[in-house]
Design brief:
alpha+beta, Alpha-Beta Plaits, 3-stranded antiparallel sheet, two-stranded antiparallel ribbon, 5 strands, elongated
Length: 84
């Protein structure tokens, strides 16, 4: 949970998830609805390109990954503290 994700969650009722690279918006929507028992209003996704890093062996690339911004219906929320 980054600082940006916390601000987005407070302001626009969105939650940020790291998802599989081949996950579609419909798959993300159904997964969130089943796992957290909420109604999803909108899903936005983006691919985060892996960075090039230098180490003692030369250059290496961090893997790319996919991020999903999930907006819930008005009045619903996900409480991560109660999930075990």
């Amino acid at each position: 949970m980054s600082e940006k994700a916390a601000i987005v969650a407070d302001n626009s009722n969105q939650y940020v998830f790291k998802v599989a690279l081949d996950a579609t918006k419909d798959e993300i929507r159904t997964s969130v609805e089943q796992l957290f028992k909420v109604t999803v209003d909108d899903v936005q996704t983006l691919r985060v390109k892996g960075k090039s890093k230098r180490n003692r062996f030369g250059w290496s690339n961090k893997p790319s990954w996919k991020k999903a911004y999930v907006r819930l219906e008005q009045g619903q929320e996900i409480d991560f503290a109660s999930i075990s």
